[in-house]
């Protein structure tokens, strides 16, 4: 008999809000998820359409399609399936009520004994964002009732911590986790960098080297990388993480104007020079801001011509690096600059890929994924599953700039990867949040504007 802490019976609106709510509430298989036949029927009705609820219905149906059947009984009217460390009990309707809410509630009540025979569960809870459903569940059953609190169930990792120390801190290059614990510092795996301020006011910045070691970084000594000089604390920490060969994936959640793409490019060029990476590949999700079109097929021209506008963020940064390298040249014609960019791309083997053309392909070297807040998790898996061993990946984006109408701040690929920060086996994933705008005061103002 499998043991679970809790069993959550989900109302349909929980899945339509975000299909990943199922995995979040499961909490890595600590809790059992229960749905009924009525819920499947309602999801089937919602699967067609272009709204977010239709997208979530389709994604959950795909999730079920990929699930493994653990056990089923047509006599007792149930099936148990499992997918991605989540177990779901599906119950056949045992109610002749006309209203779907009533059917769902009565079916659970009728199957309470069955559930208790199948599993060891401390508590059964109805979960719904519908006040009427919750009220009916309280009235008709003895089970607990909750609504989904997103702030409770969906938390992003801390990544950064700050500590204060009463005495002189250890001023050495590498410091172990055990040493830091002896100082009284509680450091989780998800922490990529920390700040320690001692009684004198002196501060130390420690950047994670691996699971057990932090590196004491002298931020003032960080040199320009390919003529790009980091301007602020966040950018310096970013470069420290990026240039660590132990880090396989760097996840960057950064508002507009913080220099994330430029820093990722300059770090990639330095890593290529230092460790001999074969190529640098740039991939950017082709979402049109304010529109639900995420494909480029309707645009005129060849694929390269269609993609050109989407590649400008990287090409603009290549132009900047070229100009900084050739400071004596005051004026550039458009043709000269275009040729210089082309030569730079050839010299450093910089390539551009389109997500729709990746099936059957293999990616290697350094891969920069930009605007990842507009990638679905499925998009991200499509890319990462094609990356060759020994490669390095930059995941760039801003949770505040989601243009994909089917995604929100919780179910996009950037949020997914932020929650992977602190992984050390079989690959090492570190992260950083950039908040200081270097582009200008207008960008700073609009990023902090509440509408």
UniProtKB/TrEMBL annotation:
- Gene3D superfamilies in UniProt: 5'-nuclease, P-loop containing nucleotide triphosphate hydrolases
Question: Does the keyword field hold Aminoacyl-tRNA synthetase?
Answer: no
Annotated PIN domain ranges read 6-135
Gene Ontology molecular function terms on file: ATP binding
Mind telling me which GO cellular component terms the entry cites?
cytosol
What Pfam family is a match, any one?
Answer: PhoH
Record keywords, A-Z:
ATP-binding, Nucleotide-binding
- Establish whether keyword Nucleotide-binding is in the entry: yes
| InterPro entries with a match to the protein in the record | P-loop_NTPase, PhoH, PhoH2-like, PIN-like_dom_sf, PIN_dom
What family, per the record?
In the N-terminal section; belongs to the PINc/VapC protein family. Belongs to the PhoH family.
> What is the protein name stated in its UniProt record?
PhoH-related protein
